[in-house]
Please model this.
Amino acid sequence: MPDIDLNFKTLLQTHCLKLMRSKLNSIQIQIDAQKMDLNTTTKSSAGDKHETARAMIHLEQEKLGMQFQEVEKQLRILSQIKFGLSSTPQTGSLIHTDKALFYICIGLGSVNLKGISIYVISPISPLAQAFLNTPDLRSITFNGMVYSIKGIV
Model:
């Protein structure tokens, strides 16, 4: 495992931003495809069928629009993470434990960087709350499992 330091955290931050931008781009492509579908849906002899198809496209557009807004929001949050060293867990901390690496910023799930799995978790997730509210910076217990803290970046 490479050193878990500020350089690694910077690489991780850049990787997460790239993933979120890719996700945003993917949603935009889907939105554009839905617009094309809506524009090319022609009225057939079965009027109700046409209206149902248009209504379904509108529903899908609304769903994609909400997803787009959520990813934009997460991208803004991720972009505003302050870099620096801290001895206590906080939003933006990369926490190295005996079990895994956790990056507290947004709920992105597991990402892989340089062959290392890192759990990118939201600060409001129960696990992140356990890290953020620990009085003991050596370990936390979550769901009956003890995580020994090896370092915080």
